[in-house]
Structure prediction request, 205 residues.
Amino acid sequence: MVIYRFILLASIACQGYAFGQSEFQLHSLKKGLTRVGEYSLEKNAIICGEHGSMPMKGVDLKTFKVFGKSGYALDKNQVYYPLTIECIETHEGGVCSCTEYIIKGANHKTFRVLGSDYAVDKNRVYFRGLPIAGADASTFSRIDLFPNLYFGKDKARVYWFNNVLDNARPDRFSIQKAGDNYILSDTILTWQFTPPDKPKLIIEK
Prediction:
């Protein structure tokens, strides 16, 4: 038996994945809609992962809802995300399942998904289920200029994934496409960005 462990996997590629659902819309798992994103309803239990995964513990089945294909879910008590994925392979096949999925300390009553793996509640900003240190939840927003770039900002900083883009000014920050690259600028600093590499500072006035 071989065991593989993955941290912060954004999504699980497996049969039954429900494509095309808005990551902002909440869905209840029920008859006729038994799978949304990483989560599925099997035998009156919620699983996170592929068919055959162990049921999630501590989930309130009646109030459990999924934010489309975002990976985020919640019930009346907690917020969830596939933080750790463990894949077990045997000679008979294999299965990938979530082994860590509770976002500790998240406020389920104020939790919102912003897109591009970002989410907020009244206290914190999250990227792929983990809090971004120092980010201001009350002013944070996703920079939605191009798909799949993973930039956000608050009143003081610009973020790429969950990292601070050093010295970038959020009030003047812009992104422009240049061929296969992107040019990031705040009118004083300019970066060249070629995904998936880290933005590279090229001009400092």
User: Anything to note?
Assistant: The first strand starts at residue 2 and ends at 7. Confidence is low (pLDDT under 50) at residues 8-21. The chain has two domains: 2-102, 132-204. DSSP finds no helices and 21 strands in the chain.
